Amino acid sequence: QVQLVESGGGLVQAGGSLRLSCATSGVSFSNYAVGWFRHTPGKEREFVATISKSGDITYYSESVKGRFTISRDNAKNTVYLQMNSLKPEDTAVYYCAARLSSALYTQAGRYDYWGQGTQVTVSS
User: Fold this and answer.
1) d(CA 102, CA 1)
2) By CB distance 3.0 to 4.6 Å, which of 100, 105, 117, 123 could disulfide with 110?
């Protein structure tokens, strides 16, 4: 069983930065593609970014492209989401998800394992 734990959320002013982490233990994270999603009450869960199992391929939603960077350190079994130039509309609970796969997916339903989420709040 893959367990994912997110951390790094918090309250930040618009224009600020946060770095989220998604860590796992007990499995080799290098076999899993990982995605970040976010959810705001009343809205669908939204795709943010995804990274291949080796880290050489990444893909972003248009709403975060150029501001967010996804990366991974497989030696530490951790995936990161560096968020810069944050906007109030980035406020959400952020989740990481993993799938034992070589392919990348933007659909939440494609991922098999999910973390508990971490709250990000951006004040104006």
Assistant:
1) 19
2) 105
Element (H, E) at 47: strand 46-51
Q: How far apart are CA 104 and CA 54, in angstroms?
A: 11
Do residues 62 and 119 lie in contact, with contact meaning Cβ atoms separated by under 8 Å? no
Distance CA 42, CA 26 (A): 35
- Cα separation of 24 and 51, whole Å? 15
Q: Find all residues with CB under 8 Å of 7, minimum gap 6, and list them.
A: 20, 21, 23, 118
Give CA 75 to chain center in angstroms.
18
Which tens digit of pLDDT belongs to each residue from 18-68? 999 999 987 888 999 999 999 999 999 999 999 999 999 999 999 999 999
CA-to-CA distance for 12 and 22, rounded, in angstroms? 19
* C-beta atoms surrounding 116 within 10 Å: 11
CA distance 104 to 89: 25
